[in-house]
Every structure is written in C-alpha cells, then in structure tokens.
Here is the input.
Amino acid sequence: MSGVSRQPDGAAFDIVLLLHVGCVVAGLATTITSAATASRLKRLTQRSVPLPESMGRYFAPGLNWAGRVMYGIPVFGVALVAMSHGAYSLRDDWVMSGLAIFVLLVLLAEGVLWPAERRIQAALAQPMAQGIPPDTAVLPGARVMARAATTCVVLLVAGSALMLAQP
Here is the structure.
C-alpha cells in the first residue's frame, strides 16, 4: 500500500466494491458458460446429432452483452482507488498488475473468444433452423472458443487472487 494503511470504508465504497466484485462474478459465469458450451458443441458435432434448443439459444446471432459486463471491472476498480483516500494508488504494483491482467483478458476476449463465437453463430444459423446436425467445419471454431474462454477464466481467477492478496 502507498502511505496510508487505513482500510477504506463507508456505504458508497461498499456499493462500488460490490459492483466491482459483481462484474468479476458475471465475467467468470459468462466465460465458464462459454467454455462449457463450446466443449459441448464439439462433442455434439463430432457425434453428428442435431443440437438441442438450448444450444440454439446460446448461439443465436448477436453480441455477447453479458460478457461485456467485464468492462465494469476496471471502471469500478479505478473508482475504488479514487475513493480509498490514499490507501490505494494506481501506482501500486498490485493495481498495475491487475490492470495488465485485464488488458490481456480484453485482448483475448475481443480478439479471439467473441469473434470465434460470432463465426460459430453464423455457421450454425442454417443447420439450427432446419434441425440438422452442424457441419464439422464448426469444430475448429469451437476448439478456439473453448480454449480462449478457459484462458479468460484463468485470467479472471488470477486477477481476483491478486486483488484479494493485495501484495
């Protein structure tokens, strides 16, 4: 910690902390769901069976807005630093490390995970509408999506552990 060792408190700080943690939990939930759904898609595609309705709902065309809740993590984190009355600083190593982990998370999610998800959405639109098994061409995208989502989970857990430890 930089200078002041008193832990911040107050209702506003607690609310922002809950929002910060809520964004982490939502990010974990969405990326775990992405990894599990992509893995299930791989298994079902390899067996050449029609996909269940739940899979169709998950891969319905559109942006993964639930995943974008992760953008609240640094927003509320910076607000917590600002509300800490000097107990925390953006120059603290653990804060900078957390921001670096978040940058990696965003690069992976925006550059790999969500584009793979959108490609799968496009590839599944026709087969899902007709109730036929998906083409095995979705397998590489499902593999990429599963790996990227799993790596995002690891980054979120690492960032959470860092924030809890505040070395």
